[in-house]
Amino acid sequence: MNCEICQLKELDVEHFEIHEVLRCKILHTILFHRALGLVRPKDIDLELFEITYVQCGDVELERKVDEKIDQFLDRVDKHPNKKNQICLSFYEVKNKQPTWFTNKVERLYWEQWYINLNVAPHQKGHSGKSTSSKIVVDPEAEERTVRRAALEASLRDVLFQIIRFVNEKKDHIPPIPNLEGVSFPYEITISSSSDSAFGMEMFKRMLQTGHPTMLS
Fold first, then answer.
1. What does the alpha-carbon distance between residue 56 and residue 65 come to, in Å, rounded to a whole number?
2. Helices and strands in the chain: count of H runs, count of E runs
3. Which of 13, 68, 127, 198 has a CA 20 to 30 Å removed from the CA of 119?
4. How would you classify the pairing of strands 4-7 and 105-119?
């Protein structure tokens, strides 16, 4: 089985933007497009960006997504100034003959989404020691506005990249499993450039699932 891999456009974000970017970008938009059966679509408006995305409307799925985002934030805090990667993988469960060294259940990965975020270091706040009564104009305000607009445009590009991928890549999707839940079986893994797993996850999956094809 070949594993289709999508390397999503890398984004430069600030710490406070991570939660919304990840919720919108992968852990709901992708899962919604890989939903099974009847879902209860729910439109969500982002607070930081003029963007609306769709959730599956499943409480358990949302809990797992938020849990992984919290883990990602914790990793960012522990490894500042490092590239941080999150991977959403869909897999098929196969039973196989157990041996001394392997389990009887095997995961065959058929689709993976890689997201890399460059997180800017925390900005120190202004001291505010000036006693002048004049209105102080933040010299960095315009720069932040321009940067935010650029990030919003990039985020829209990523959403279209996801839609293009799911529309073009369909032949690799396995038969719908006889399992409970709104999505195909999936897992979310996290690593940073300070972690030996960073950059090696794709190679490991290639060994497990065969040579992948990519769409960027």
1. 12
2. 5, 8
3. 127
4. parallel
Can you read off the two tokens belonging to residue 171?
């032949």
- Under a CB-based contact definition with an 8 Å cutoff, are residues 16 and 117 in contact? no
- Strand, helix or coil at 35? strand
Under 8 Å CB-to-CB from 214, ≥6 apart: which residues?
Answer: 4, 5, 6, 7
In terms of pTM, does the model score above 0.85? Answer: no
Q: What is the DSSP letter of 41?
A: -
Buried b (16+ CB within 10 A) or exposed e, 62-72: bebbeebbeeb
CB 80 within 8 A of CB 64: no
- 10 Å CB burial of residue 3 (0-12, 13-18, 19+) is buried
117 burial level (CB within 10 Å; 0-12, 13-18, 19+): buried
**Tens digit of each residue's pLDDT (9 = 90 or more) over 85-137:** 899 999 988 876 666 666 677 888 999 999 989 888 765 543 334 344 455 55
Q: Which residue shows structure tokens 């974000």?
A: 13
